[in-house]
Design brief:
Blueprint (H helix, E strand, L loop, with lengths): L4 H4 L6 H4 L9 E6 L8 H10 L26 E8 L16 H8 L26 E8 L8 H5 L5 E3 L5 E3 L10 H4 L6 E2 L6 E2 L5 H4 L6 H5 L5 E5 H17 L6 E3 L12 E5 L19 H23 L6
Parallel strand pairs: 1-10
Antiparallel strand pairs: 1-8, 2-3, 4-5, 6-7, 9-10
Amino acid sequence: MALDLREATGGERDPATAGGYAEPPERVGFFTDTSVCIGCKACEVACKEWNAVPEDGLLFTGMSYDNTGSLGADSWRHVAFIEQPRRLGRQETHLAPTELPPDLLRSAGGRTAVSLGLPASAPPDGHVAAAADMDFRWLMSSDVCKHCTHAACLDVCPTGALFRTEFGTVVVQEDVCNGCGYCVPACPYGVIDKRPSNGLVSKCTLCYDRLSVGQEPACAKSCPTDSIQFGELAELRERAAGRVRDLHDAGVTSARLYGADPQDGVGGAGAFFLLLDEPEVYGLPPDPVVTTRDLPAMWRRAGLAAVGLLVALAAVTIPGARR
């Protein structure tokens, strides 16, 4: 079934319909606007709490504030912190979609600052001056499973542990997984991972249990800036295109969408992103391709080779065949 998905979704059928659902609901997914991500990690915490994802070490890399490093079996959400050397005067502005509400500005206008008693910070010698190595900008992004339209993990799973839901998402059934690990190298994004404690694979389910009762995923629910937006995929793509236009009009010409194109190598992602730099900067492949794309042709060629070998053996072994 999975190998037919690429052909089936080339027309009007969506992944859920191609997966056997007669009347599925609209496909849903994530649009992550990295331009308003503040790196608070609320999504990571909410994901772990709701899905009972085990603690993954909380070890800092020593190179940034990133304490998860990458997606994995115990990190279904990963907030990347990317430092880029860039003079502060050249930082891009106009990233916030709106100004502060007028009523909030009016209410705060007559207030005076109050000391909270927090300790001040200064160099040991007390001398404060500009530091040359402080000219940088942060790029922050909450990464997650892409819930691909053409999901290679589905193609290679021998037990049916990975399945397509009626919402078009891809979910792992840990009680069906046999730990073979075929799906791990099949993922073009390096999302799927095996959990060391039990040898089974685990990844984002897009909170399938919450979707089934009409609730949004925990990560999107907890995001304070709406960097992670959940909804029907078609509407999210329209919203994202409008956001890119607004940023371009504001002078942020580096804004671009990643994973939103249904014609890309995975047929479009169910979780796509607005980026402010090249995908490689965020640790994303620039041109992902479903890794099982050539499997049908490979099997056909293997079959032809096998037939040719059988004909050759018959010609050698059957008496009179060489006349």
